[in-house]
Specification:
The structure is a single chain. With 319 residues, this protein is of the alpha/beta class. The chain has one domain: Metal-dependent hydrolases (TIM Barrel), CATH 3.20.20.140. Helix content is 47%, strand content 15%. The chain has 14 helices and 8 strands. α9 links the parallel β6 and β7. α3 runs parallel beside α5 and α13 packs antiparallel against α14. It is globular, with a radius of gyration of 18 Å. The two termini are 13 Å apart. The site of adenine (ADE) has 10 residues, from loops.
């Protein structure tokens, strides 16, 4: 099995329907009406209704243990597909809304990472993610929280949510703070919006990676700049196809980005929403084993893990 590493997966977006049912039952909650379609999968029709379905899954979570159990089960499933490292987008906004203290929520995630390492030999790390449509003030408060209570497993600041709201420059204070304190930085851009969104992100934010960024391919000057600056793309083809950005895998720019020399990684984003997994992304990428190994090496090198861990993971690939 090809060793794999993942840099772009959302914790709540990783919950399979069976686990959502289990957590709802454990918390004595009814599942939200319309959450599932007739086929038993999450029901949504476009990007904004996907974000809405995502929020409704979040609605079945109540306790710090819920968040930890989701992370552990994801690490278990992904390790079974050959993953050695997962960097997970985790939103402190969700536990905060439930009245769960940051340290308690984080403690559950840390315990999940430690347990998964012992049980499956996989490493996990956390990207604290702010939600773009909640605005820059909330993002700054989140950045202040993660730097006030640092933890070695919280390695970066990220941002998802509705790319149509605000501009990257609005979030510069949050990103500058995180960057100044030594955290990695990544941001979703060039997914729903075009290359101008990636240009703005890399001009105004101290990011070394872009979440998605696939629409950069429409702007050759931007592709050159990504290469020159070594900025990596967290590419999620299955997510892009499910959200209708591209008709099929042949139309997806993955191969063009690789051929141009952009640093590219493969990721699942919100796997059960998009009927994919990390293993599926590797299997369906249309790349040979050597190219897939290069992708894993790129993921490890551009990850926000510390240098000793990166070295250990890279060494493990040649073992
Ligand atoms: N949050 C979860 N998945 C996302 C995506 N694909 N784009 C933006 N925000 C998200
Ligand atoms: Zn995402």
């Amino acid at each position: 099995m090809i060793p794999k590493a993942e840099l772009h997966c959302h914790l709540e977006g990783s919950v399979p329907p069976e686990l959502a049912r289990e957590l709802a039952a454990r918390n004595g909650l009814d599942l939200p009406a319309g959450l599932f379609g007739k086929d038993g999968h999450y029901a949504w029709t476009d990007f904004l209704s996907f974000l809405d379905a995502y929020d409704r899954v979040c609605g079945v979570l109540r306790t710090a243990r819920d968040f930890g159990d989701i992370f552990y089960s994801y690490l278990q499933r992904t390790a079974a597909e050959g993953a050695v490292y997962v960097e997970m987008f985790c939103s402190p906004e969700r536990p905060k809304a439930l009245g769960i203290a940051y340290a308690v929520w984080l403690g559950a995630l840390v315990e999940a990472i430690d347990r998964a390492r012992r049980d499956f030999g996989i490493e996990g790390r956390i990207i604290a993610v702010c939600i773009r449509h909640l605005g820059p003030d909330r993002a700054l408060a989140l950045a202040q929280q993660i730097v006030a209570e640092p933890h070695p497993y919280v390695v970066a600041l990220g941002m998802g949510g509705d790319e149509g709201k605000f501009s990257p420059a609005d979030f510069a204070p949050a990103y500058r703070l995180a960057h100044d304190k030594g955290l990695g930085c990544t941001v979703h851009a060039g997914e729903v919006r075009g290359p101008e969104s990636v240009r703005a992100a890399i001009r105004d934010l101290p990011v070394s990676r872009i979440g998605h960024g696939v629409r950069s391919v429409e702007d050759p000057g931007l592709v050159d700049e990504l290469i020159r600056r070594g900025i990596a793309l967290e590419v999620c083809p299955g997510s892009n196809l499910a959200l209708g950005l591209y008709r099929n895998r042949d139309a997806h720019p993955l191969h063009r980005l690789i051929a141009a020399g952009v640093r590219v990684t493969l990721n699942s984003d919100d796997p059960p929403f998009f009927h994919t997994t990390l293993g599926t992304e590797y299997d369906e990428a249309g790349l040979d084993a050597a190219a897939l190994r290069t992708i894993t090496r790129t993921a490890i090198e551009t990850s926000f893990a510390d240098e000793p861990l990166k070295e250990k993971l890279l060494k493990g690939m040649t073992a």
